[in-house]
Design a protein that fits this description.
The chain is mainly beta. It contains three helices and 15 strands.
Amino acid sequence: MADEDFHLGAAVVSSDGREIGKLVHLLVGPEYGLRALVVKESAAFTGHGFSPGSYLVNDEFVVPVDAARSVTHDRVELSLSSGDVRLLPAYLSYREKEETSTEFAADEIGPLTASPEVPHWVEQLANKAADSLEIDRDENVMIGHSGKKLGTVKDVLFDDDQLVGVVIRPEGFFRGDVILPRRFLDRSDDAALFARIEEGDLERLTPFKPGD
């Protein structure tokens, strides 16, 4: 098994054969080594199918990379049973934060039990190290601090345990996917990846051809 086999959107299966969800995020460290997987649980695995009118408090959890027993392009098999998986830590957590009187009034109208949205007085936190870089499928890639969108993430590329780059689909029409090498990746936040690159540099990036 090699880290280049991990692909966003792959099915994730427990050791007892349960399909538990999809691979939605990869967490890499400051040296670009793969640290952990973030899996979004399927409705069947969460039990949501038994109560379809209910909202899920959290449906993403963190899987240590060494728990991946077998990996192909479309499937990740874990060494953990479905019972073990249910004990893994949630990726997002929530805590109370200070809010204005206007936000408080809005929350009184729409409490957590009646709305799928997180109320203003709750802060969402990701369960990852501060120096980890989160990479998501269809995540926006922004050009530095310019506020301009470079494109969206379509996949990730690994060579053994090192992140090589991300496959992005640039903005605009009639442009194929290209590889954004890791040297251009600056940082990430909850909404986007940021790249140290200029728009004109796109013309010099390597076209992505699956299987090369």
